[in-house]
Amino acid sequence: MLFVSTDSLDGFSLSLSSSNSSSPSSSSSSKPGTLTLYLSPTTSTSSTLGSLIYALPNSLSTPLFSDESSIDLATRIASTLATKFKRPVIVGSSIPSRADPTGSLISRVIFYVQQQQQQQQQQQQQ
Questions:
Q1: Torsion of CA 82, 88, 94, 100, to 10 degrees
Q2: What DSSP designation does 57 have?
Q3: Residue pLDDT, tens place only, 21-57
Q4: Which of 102, 94, 86 is nearest to 31 (CA)?
Q5: In terms of Cα–Cα distance, which of 38, 45, 43, 97 is closest to 67?
Q6: Which residues span the domain enclosing 26?
Q7: How many domains does the chain have?
Q8: What is the DSSP secondary structure assignment for residue 95, as one 8-state letter?
Q9: Where is region (Disordered) located (predicted)?
């Protein structure tokens, strides 16, 4: 099942997609698929492509595309989400790393993703 959500969070736009790789013959065996998140500023009139990071739960991450201004924040978010949710993560971000000097955006993103995951589970149970 594919779950897609788009929302805004304190001046940033988030687009989240999540899938479960499950066998059609057995609904109880559900492996988590890749979590994909894209973050962009909502107030900027012009935005760069930003950075695209692929991260695994074992703390390995690699940039698929990098922009010097956003790679640090995108890497931190991707690594944190992969570790927290124990699944592969792709994070795209055009938000400059300097926009989050305290790291508070990461905790807000984690909270947002947790809420969306809970909603997805509730929808699957219905």
A1: 0
A2: T
A3: 544 443 444 456 888 998 888 776 556 788 999 999 9
A4: 86
A5: 97
A6: 2-125
A7: 1
A8: S
A9: 1-37
